[in-house]
Write a structure and sequence with these properties.
heterodimer; A: mainly beta; B: 0% helix
């Protein structure tokens, strides 16, 4: 079965960088885009971007451009999100997610368990 | 960016009630809309996509309708497992955005 397993919680200082991993299993990794969505405490969901693991192409939400890097390692079926110059309002649960259908459908049928990143001095 | 406005933001209902949640887009998004259910401490779960297509395994008491700018999620007979927060999401153009959620609580 499809599984997305994310790395553990992190505490970071303002201005630092964070990296969260998302290891996929149960399907052909390169056939489906990986998306990243975050959720601040008690708040709604925010789409951050996607990566095509096959070719490495990405699409990023404008507000994160310049601070976000999405990468994938096809040898380990793992995707990564790196967010730099962290601010207090980057405190959130970060989710990776996979499309329902082959390629990039726009809606997310499979989700990782979420990784809490806390930005605190 | 397309704004997704959900209403109500909270609702109290009883088991067996019919529940309707509305999602309005700030511009037409055709039928490029998904609905998710989220319970505390867990990832969202896809319920419906393309506005009205039920994801496999989702109970038939859930249904979605609408196109253009106005959409609804209906739960025909609310069950104990349905108390959760529901989000709509458009995928018409970038950035994809979510509504702020509707929390369904026990009356």
């Amino acid at each position: 079965q499809v599984q997305l397993v994310q790395s553990g919680a992190e505490v970071k200082k303002p201005g630092a960088s964070m990296m969260v991993s998302c290891k996929a299993s149960g399907y052909t990794f390169v056939d489906y885009y990986i998306h990243w969505v975050r959720q601040a405490p008690g708040q709604g969901l925010e789409w951050m971007g996607w990566i095509n693991p096959s070719r490495g192409g990405t699409k990023l939400a404008q507000e994160f451009r310049g601070r976000i890097t999405l990468t994938s390692d096809t040898s380990s079926n793992t995707s990564y999100i790196e967010l730099s110059r962290l601010r207090y309002d980057d405190t959130a649960v970060y989710y990776c997610a996979r499309d329902l259908s082959y390629g990039n459908s726009g809606y997310f049928a499979y989700w990782g368990q979420g990784t809490l990143v806390t930005v605190s001095s | 960016d397309i704004q997704m406005t959900q209403s109500p933001s909270n609702l109290s209902a009883s088991v067996g009630d019919r529940v309707t949640i509305t999602c309005r887009a700030s511009q037409s998004i055709s039928s490029r809309l998904a609905w998710y259910q989220q319970k505390p401490g867990t990832a969202p779960k896809l319920l419906i996509y393309t506005a009205s297509t039920l994801e496999i395994g989702v109970p038939s008491r859930f249904s979605g309708s609408g196109s253009g700018t106005e959409f609804t999620l209906t739960i025909s007979s609310l069950q104990p497992d349905d108390f959760a927060t529901y989000y709509c999401q458009h995928y018409y153009n970038y950035p994809w955005t979510f509504g702020r959620g509707t929390k369904v609580e026990i009356k």
